[in-house]
Amino acid sequence: MKKSEASVFLKNRNGMAAKNLIKIPSEIKNIRKVSREILSALIDYNLDEDKRFDIRLCIEEAVRNAITHGNCSDKKRSVKVSYWVEGGQVNIEIEDEGKGFDYRIVPDPTAGGNLMKTSGRGVYLIKKLMDGVEFNETGNKVRMVKNLKIGG
Amino acid sequence: MAVKTEPKSGITVCYIEGEIDINSSPDIKKSFDKLISKKIPKIVINLSKVTYVDSSGLATLVEILKNMKAYSGRMRLSNLSPKIKSLFEITKLERLFEIIADEEEAISTFA
Q1: CA separation for the pair A24, A6 (Å, rounded)
Q2: What's the pLDDT tens digit per position in A113-143?
Q3: Which member of B52, B54, B96 has the closest CB to residue A116?
Q4: What count of Cα atoms within 13 Å lies in the side-chain half-sphere of residue A15?
Q5: N or C terminus: which one in chain A shows less Cβ crowding within 10 Å?
Q6: Nearest chain B Cα to A30, which residue?
Q7: Global pTM?
Q8: Is the ipTM of this complex over 0.90?
Q9: CB B57 within 8 A of CB B77
Q10: Is the distance from CB of B99 to CB of B77 less than 8 angstroms?
Q11: B3: DSSP letter
Q12: Cβ of B55 and A61 within 8 Å?
């Protein structure tokens, strides 16, 4: 994607943050498409490799959770992703069609016996790598925020 | 994704390339299942060419470790990039794995 094309996705005519929307069927093969599109849109921000890694990882973890846990891997259900840049931060919202979950009681994967478990690290990594994470009350939508500026 | 293996000084060194994620994890697991079925006693997994790991990739490595421990096999991870090493630290998995800077040193720890 050319730089000028990428910028169009993030600002409307008035230069204000424009929300971009992606909707995917709940299949694992669609996860990468989402992270690729968002990272392409952020190309003008010249993010370092670590920041790109963090953003990609968090997008893919959240989308995967939406697919497998939220939508129970039902291809007929969709995951909606919206993203925009505002105040030097990228905002990424991921929503599934499920009943939600209680995000307050996600077990700590670093606690004692949980270390040897082979699952349960997705939400933890998102909270550690993003600068802000917020779930809606139902628990079927998450907003992740990452500072785009150097040192942010 | 195929995992390459090479015997060195009586240790099986395994090389994973590219990404260890939700897409590649099943194939990686299959490759290691073959080694584990043979009860290979000492393995070094060289991650120098691994560019990306997600939580399913971490889960795959945990599962390999668990399966090896079941027959008292021993495993080391070597050559992690700073970013991937930081993932192990963030998730406290550096407490579970023996993470060594380079392959040669990892091999020597089995002596």
Answers
A1: 20
A2: 888 888 889 999 999 999 999 999 999 999 9
A3: B96
A4: 1
A5: C
A6: B23
A7: 0.91
A8: yes
A9: no
A10: yes
A11: P
A12: yes
